Amino acid sequence: MKNKKWLYWLVALLLVAAAGYSVIHVHKAEQANSVKMAKQASIDKKRDQKIAKQKKDQKQRARKLVDWSKPSLTGEYPDLTPYRHIKKKKDKVWLDVSVRKQRVYVMQGRYILYTMYASIGKNYDGHTQDYQRTPVGDFRLQKEHGPEYYDATKKYGAKYWTSFSGHGVYRFESVPFDKNGKVIEKQAGRLGSQKVTKKHNIKNYGSIRLTVPDAKWLQENIKPHTRVVVHGKKSDKEFLDFLY
Q: Which CATH number do you get for residue 231?
């Protein structure tokens, strides 16, 4: 009988200990989750403030010629460190390339972190020569990149090129430079211009041109395998299913 009482007391003590441990564990988990949520809220607030500032900045500069030697926007480039741990495809950092708007958007999910002025050759079916075509579709940033190049057959080169298709065939790169290392201003002046026509297409052999600082930052901060979506007017939503 005494043994049974001792056993009952032991079971009771174990149950109390387990309940106490469970309460402590739940409390710690709630505290950790609260800290995590507060940290994420702080990150989101800073991001939203920066996005609002960038929109205001872009409106003010919309009518001015783009300076190819400077970043597209004033202020600092976005810090992508807080977003590197994200695993959900719809919330990751990716590049949205709008042929219609002649822009490259650095995205985090549906949020625009930064806007870059670009020169992108449009795809005019039956009217566009191969060297003018910028491929439309869903790509991944590739490992191939370089500080600069010059192609004598095309009579121009560029700085800070980063491949997004064809392992060096189609690239993000700076505005074009001649064999003497001087920028070709007539073409550089078309950055961000939406007046691209069949007759006056951008002859960039399918690559996407950016300002020199933008091309450099992209190469140094956007990692290989990052999603790159290139779309035109008729396909604005076609390649964006991953966001839903």
A: 2.40.440.10
Same domain as 174, residue 138: yes
pTM metric for this prediction: 0.73
31-80 confidence digits (pLDDT tens): 777 777 777 777 777 777 666 666 666 555 554 678 999 999 988 999 99
Residues in the chain: 244
- Please state whether 146 falls in left (phi above 0), alpha (psi between -120 and 50) or beta: beta
**Consecutive H or E run containing 5:** helix 2-61
Largest CA distance in the chain: 102
98 and 26 assigned to the same domain: no
Residue-by-residue DSSP string for 41-56: HHHHHHHHHHHHHHHH
- Show the tokens assigned to 35: 């800290």
CA distance 218 to 220: 6
Q: Token digits for 171?
A: 């690239």
C-beta separation of 218 from 126 below 8 A: no
